[in-house]
Amino acid sequence: MNSITAVILTFNERLHLQRCIESIFPLTKNIVVVDSFSTDDTVDIARRCGATILQRAWQNNHSVQFNWALSQLPASTEWVFRIDADEILTTALIDEIKQTLLTINSSIVGLQCIRKMVFQGSLLKYGGMGGTRTLRLFRFGHGRSESRWMDEHIKLDGQSLNLSGAIIDNNLQSLEWWRAKHENYAKREAVDLLNLKYHFSVSDSVASQAVVSQLSLKRKIKEKIYARLPKGLRSMAYFMYRYILLGGFLDDANGRSFHRLQGYWYRNLADRNVAQVERYKQEHGVDIKTAIMHVLGISV
């Protein structure tokens, strides 16, 4: 079977890393942990688990970090699997990947799996979160992370195949930790929204890839429709779409909280950040990059 190298980006992931690596072992023992100088024992855990460890300072950008990781892999690498430290592979997905790679056509350069999410102990079933497609496995040299500050995906130069197996996102941190993380995410989301309007950074979106997929279609809708709606209104419209039309209200109490927080609060916060940056730009007569740095503390 073709060899697979799993890549995990980490910073203070002692709570999740061993669980993640152990879930990968039945698929591959080639695991590369790219650590942003953790202050806990993340690196020690990775070492005990037999992973290759690379370290690079964090630049508040997953895309840059992952693409750097790709540049460090040997030319002999065949397939790359991207997985977050708080995710685990299911046995069904591992078995499906193994079987698929035995007979896969050379024209297929990526495999998409199902991503399911557990929030505060509850498996989300509705609101569009019950089984979204994500591209995590691709032929080395045929994919890289799109250039984005938030919600980045792998951009392929060829066709992908859909699998039915799942990867599970199950973060064990507290709700306060989750909120703090998403406050930072909302700043990065704001930078992406501002870039669509002011074009201060090169865009390399999956929306422009030659082969249309569920991921590229969703990105195109976000960039061409969502981003052009009035600030504030778009976050409410998205929440209503998720909560009502996609049945988010049918999830349990934890699930409903997730849809309210991630579907509305987080996106509304991103819109507020956009408004703050644009107000600062206008009031102080500075360029958009300067305004972003002053308001959000992000250098673009």
Topology, pairings included?
Blueprint: E1 4-10, H1 17-24, E2 31-35, H2 42-48, E3 52-55, H3 62-72, E4 79-82, E5 87-89, H4 91-103, E6 108-119, E7 122-123, E8 132-139, E9 143-145, E10 154-156, E11 159-170, H5 175-198, H6 214-224, H7 233-245, H8 253-284, H9 288-296
Parallel strand pairs: 1-2, 1-4, 2-3, 6-11
Antiparallel strand pairs: 4-8, 5-11, 6-7, 6-8, 9-10
Helix pairs in contact: 5-8, 7-8, 8-9
Task: Write up what this structure looks like.
By secondary structure, the chain is an alpha/beta fold. Among the domains are: 1-85, Spore Coat Polysaccharide Biosynthesis Protein SpsA, Chain A (Alpha-Beta Complex), CATH 3.90.550.10; 175-296, no CATH class. Helix content is 43%, strand content 21%. α1 links the parallel β1 (4-10) and β2. α5 (175-198) packs across α8 (253-284), α7 (233-245) runs antiparallel to α8 (253-284) and α8 crosses α9 (288-296). The longest helix has 32 residues, at 253-284. It is globular, with a radius of gyration of 19 Å.
